[in-house]
Amino acid sequence: MRDLVEIGIGRTARRAYELDDVEIIPSRRTRSSKDVSTAWQIDAYRFEIPLVTHPTDAIVSPRTAVAVGELGGLGVLNAEGLWARHADVDEVLFRLVQAVEESAESGEDLAGPVRLLQELHAAPVRMDLITEAIRQVRESGVTVAVRVSPQHAAELTPDLLAAGVEILVVQGTIISAEHVARNGEPLNLKRFIADLDVPVIAGGVGDYRTAMHLMRTGAAGVIVGYGYAPGVTSTDAVLGIGVPMATAIADAAAARRDYLDETGGRYVHVLADGGMLTSGDIAKAIACGADAVMLGEPLAAATEAPGQGLYWTASAAHPSVPRSHVSAGIDQEVDLRTLLFGPATDPRGVTNLFGSLRRAMAKTGYSDLKEFQKVGLTIRG
Q1: Percent of the chain having pLDDT more than 70?
Q2: CB atoms within 10 A of CB 379
Q3: For the whole model, what pTM was predicted?
C-alpha cells in the first residue's frame, strides 16, 4: 500500500525515500567475496562490473571511455558535448578551469563557468570530430556507447551508427516515450528504436508509469534519475521536479517485473543515475532493484578524468535553463583502477567502489547481482 500524506485539504502526496534513508539487512548467510560475481549483461554485451558512466565531458573523454571499458565497465561519450564541437578540447577545458578559479575569486558563485559552457556548446556539432572520438574507442576493442539528446537523436543517429556505435543512449533530464511538439515531428521512441539494429538505453524517468511506457518502446534499458548530485545539479530548484532515488529505482524495478509478465519474458534493464557518492550508495541502488549504476561525480576524482577534478552534467550548457553548476568533485585524487577496485585508504566509501559492492554482496550472502536485488531493506527512523 502506498504511503500517502495529506499536505492540505483534498491534496495528498506520496512519501518517497532517498538512498540515504535505506539500509541493507544482513542475512543468515555470508560467503567469500571471491565467490561473488558483479557481472552484468545487456543485449549481447557483457561487463564485469555494473558501471555505466554518466555521459558528461567532465569524466568521459575517448581515452577514459577506453580505460573504463578495459576495467570492465561501459564508458559513454556525449555525442553533443565538447569532443563533438571542438578540435582542441584540452585547451577548452583549460579555459573552463580558469573560469572556475576566476569565479571563485570574484564571488560569482560559478556563474562564469556556466556561461562559458553555454558559449562552448553554441558551436555546431561536427560529425568528423565525434567520428574520430568514436574511432579511438572502437579501435581499442571495448564496447562503443554514445549519448544523444531526444531532440537530436533522429538527426545524429544514422551517422553515429555508421561510425561504429554499438549501444545508443538517448538521455535527457526528463524523457517520455513521445515528445509532443507544436511545430515539427516529435520523436516517437517506439518507431525510432524499431528501426535500429543496436540496443537503446533511454531515460531519465522517476516513476512507474513513465518507466513502463519507455519499456514498451523496445528500449533495452531504462535510466532512472537525471544524474542528481548534491551541490551540482539543480533540476529540483529550477523546475521543482524530482523523485527520491530509492523510491524511483524501486518503482522502475516494479515496472520491469510487470513488463516481463506482460511480454512473456522480455527483460529491460534498470540503470540508476544519481544520488550515489559512495560505495554504500551503489550497493543500496542495486538492492532497490537497479541492474547497473550510472556514475558521474564519484568518477571526477580519477586522475584520468578530463575535467581535472571538476564536475558538471550536460544540462549545465542548456542555452536558457541551465540545471547544473560546475563544481569541484570529491576531494581526493586517485587513479581509475584504484577508484573502482582499491585498495582503499579513505574510510568514507569513495574509493574501491566495486570492490566494496562485492564485499556487501558477500556479507549478505548473495552470489550475483540478480540475487542481491532480493536483499532485505529497512528505512531509517
Answers
A1: 95
A2: 11
A3: 0.94
